[in-house]
Amino acid sequence: MRSDDAATFDSEELRIQIPAGGWVVGTVRKPADESPRAVVVIHPATAVPERLYTGFAEFLATRGYVAVTYDYRGTGRSGSPRDHRGLRMRD
After folding, report:
1. Are 26 and 18 in contact (CB under 8 A)?
2. Which residues contact 26 (CB under 8 A, 6 or more apart)?
3. What is the 3-state secondary structure (H, E, C) of 35-66?
4. What does the alpha-carbon distance between residue 60 and residue 88 come to, in Å, rounded to a whole number?
5. Is 39 within a domain?
6. Phi first, then psi: what are they for 61, rounded to 5°?
7. Would you say which domain of life the source belongs to (predicted)?
8. Residue 14: which of 34, 38, 39 has the closest Cα?
9. Domain range for 44
């Protein structure tokens, strides 16, 4: 649910290179016109792409929080499961 008077937010891609190869890709959403209250990192459920959390992250950003979402390796924008066949939860 969105309110017409909700604040705006800025969004940018986050890319973290993994020493073993590949990237963890995510999104940082932050309030456009104010200093943030805090940072909230939304850790996805296993094999669930970050886009599922977009609405919640945007809700937080319009209310003064920096919201960070990301895809685990082998999920969504962080790569195909086929490209990460040897990847295990402990990795």
Report:
1. no
2. 13, 14, 15, 16, 50, 68, 69, 70, 71, 77
3. CCCCEEEECCCCCCCHHHHHHHHHHHHHCCCE
4. 31
5. yes
6. -65, -35
7. Bacteria
8. 39
9. 9-80
For the record, the structure tokens of 28 come out as 């940082």
Q: Residues 84-91: contacts with CB within 8 Å, 24+ apart?
A: 84/22, 89/46, 91/20
Q: pLDDT > 90: what percent of the chain? A: 57
What tens digit of pLDDT does each residue of 54-88 get?
999 999 999 999 999 999 888 888 777 666 666 65
pTM of this prediction exceeds 0.90: no
Residue 87 resides in a domain: no
Beta bridge partners of residue 15, listed in sequence order: 25
Query: What are the tokens at 32?
Result: 């456009």
Domain count across the chain: 1
